[in-house]
Amino acid sequence: LLTMSLIILIVGFYLLQHTLKQPLNGAGAIGFFVGILFIVMLGTHSAIKFWGNYHDKYETHQVVKVIIGMNPQWEIVRGKVLSSTNAYDRFNGDEILEVSVVDASRMDVASILLGREKIPLQFQQYFPIRFQFYYDRSRAGRGFGGLTMQARITNSNGQLLYINDTHTLLTNNVKIDVKRI
Question: Which pTM does this prediction carry?
Answer without folding.
Answer: 0.60
